[in-house]
Backbone:
DNA sequence: GGTAGCATGTAACGCGTTACATGATTCG
DNA sequence: CGAATCATGTAACGCGTTACATGCTACC
């Protein structure tokens, strides 16, 4: 039940059309809540039906026409309610850890190459986050309204840092393991 | 497409019935791939139909009767294939980070209490992992076949450590923020 | 006017979740 | 025998994913 709230947040930051939202979900918000354009259009329809958002006055309702949405007061209230409500952490889901556990049973053949690939992907993501930090949060300038956003970014940086370190360590261990290479 | 492989791994470690699997998914494997008993029964049916597992000879097929499964050679081969195959990391999904981003727009009212609760949950999980480490991986004794399992456990420990640190930091920042308290 | 790209959708399917149903076993 | 517990299921629904469809706009 989080996609509608992700969309409300994005629309409050800036009113947008479906495709613009999709693009923003590929960048900033999508770093921790991804969505495809099909999900977004489906959800925009629901949010509009529930009275949380509306199309901007300059709309043409035809099919191939751009249609921008803005958040209504009821939408902002719902987002505030959701933000403050207690929520249990979702159960963990990590395919890579599952694969290592499987490898402990059926062997590590072919695993190493993909671990290298993942390491490279995480390094790239980390570099991207650090670049954003340099650009948007230079040291010294720390406006109160940016504090929360910086906090979120730092979570991303620390998580990617963890994965690069852990994968490096995992590759070390794999190298020392007996078995076909 | 990972639940069947999680089940194959668990069944290779030890043949089990559906409910026993459910219990094991509440503990070890479920730490990074959770599943309910409904999912597990559904998936056991599919895996049996595909010839990857079979019921142990001592079966009684009646409804309330215990039914244990073991992995067939085809199932082990499929698991080995899946383990070695390249897989892209799943896009991140984290509700808490999303909520912080929403709070940057609609305010932080009511957020603090739930962050405290999450911090406590992560501290408890971390303690549980460390207890498992003390019990199953005492320093010095590091059999090669346990290396991979220990590696997975350390990922869990490091991730929970990260969350406790990050949440502590987040609560510090929230405290310094202006606004209704 | 034909083609490429922009923009908004529809349809189908599978996994994950929640609620409920049914049969066996144990024990007072 | 009645209740609690163990054990295996069924049904319904929503989100996430993939593939495909339709209508505009710009440009050669």
Residues:
């Amino acid at each position: 039940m989080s996609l509608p709230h992700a969309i409300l947040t994005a629309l409050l930051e800036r009113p947008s059309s479906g495709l613009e939202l999709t693009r923003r979900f590929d960048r900033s918000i999508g770093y921790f809540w991804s969505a495809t354009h099909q999900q977004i259009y489906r959800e925009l329809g629901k949010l509009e039906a529930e009275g949380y958002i509306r199309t901007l006055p300059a709309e043409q309702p035809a099919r191939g026409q751009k249609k921008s949405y803005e958040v209504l007061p009821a939408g902002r209230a719902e987002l505030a309610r959701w933000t403050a409500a207690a929520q249990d952490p979702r159960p963990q889901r990590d395919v890579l850890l599952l694969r290592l556990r499987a490898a402990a049973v059926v062997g590590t053949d072919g695993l190493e190459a993909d671990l290298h690939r993942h390491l490279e992907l995480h390094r790239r993501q980390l570099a991207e986050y650090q670049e954003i930090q340099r650009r948007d949060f230079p040291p010294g300038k720390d406006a109160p309204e940016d504090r929360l956003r910086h906090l979120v970014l730092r979570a991303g940086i620390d998580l990617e840092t963890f994965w690069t370190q852990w994968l490096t360590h995992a590759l070390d261990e794999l190298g020392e393991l007996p078995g076909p290479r």
About this structure: The CA atoms of residues 29 and 158 of chain B lie 17 Å apart. Chain B touches chain A through 73 residues (CB under 8 Å). The mean pLDDT of chain B is 90. Residues 17-19, 37-38, 41-42, 45, 62-67 of chain B lie near DNA strand D (CB under 10 Å from a C1').
